[in-house]
Design brief:
With 187 residues, this protein is mainly alpha-helical. It folds into two domains: 78 residues; 79 residues. 76% of the residues lie in helices and 4% in strands. A two-stranded antiparallel ribbon has the order 1-2. The radius of gyration is 38 Å and the shape is rod-shaped. It starts with a helix and ends with a helix.
Length: 187
């Protein structure tokens, strides 16, 4: 986690330019006062100046690499936001269409056929068991006794259940599409 690049990313750019200036100043000092500095000190001073000068440019160069990497990360974030907004917009349009379609379907439910059909208790039991994902005791039997629930009530419940199913299916499709698009952006 703590690497040289991480550390160099913390250093402000003025420090690298200060290091370059210090290396240049030492080199110029050695050149100007070279006559009064003994020869065996001049070579280490010149080498030190070159090393400091080079170190400053190295640090500056590494920071440029980090700045480019930060820019790439920022661009990736922007792309992710664009993809997310697109998929959310598409999902909202599908949800709006579902709302419209199921409103039309619900409008077709009438109570005029309720007097012709009262649902048997066995139908209500099976329907409720399927909705609860449970199995009730079979001791009730299927004798065909009337449940007192009208056909329109069952139709309304069935339409609501299918509407919920389709809403969840569209959410899942949108989530799967979002994941695929994110994988394309970040392979």
């Amino acid at each position: 986690m703590f690497s040289l690049n991480w550390f160099l990313g913390l250093i402000p750019s003025w420090i690298s330019w200060s290091i370059i200036a210090a290396g240049a100043a030492i080199f110029i000092f050695e050149m100007v006062f070279g006559m009064i500095i003994p020869f065996f000190y001049r070579i280490p001073i010149r080498l030190l100046a070159i090393v400091i000068f080079s170190l400053g440019f190295y640090v500056e160069g590494r920071q440029d690499v980090l700045i480019n990497a930060k820019q790439e990360v920022q661009e990736a974030k922007v792309e992710q936001v664009v993809v997310t907004k697109y998929i959310v917009k598409k999902y909202k349009e599908k949800r709006k269409k579902l709302n419209h379609d199921y409103a039309k379907i619900a409008d077709q439910i009438t109570t005029k056929d309720d007097h012709m059909c009262t649902l048997p208790e066995s139908f209500v039991s099976v329907f409720n068991n399927a909705a609860k994902d449970s199995i009730s005791s079979t001791s009730k039997g299927t004798d065909g006794t009337a449940s007192g629930i009208e056909l329109s009530t069952a139709e309304k419940t069935i339409v609501e259940n299918y509407e919920l199913y389709h809403r969840v299916a569209e959410q899942l499709k949108a989530l799967q599409e979002w994941i695929r698009e994110q994988q394309k952006l970040n392979p």
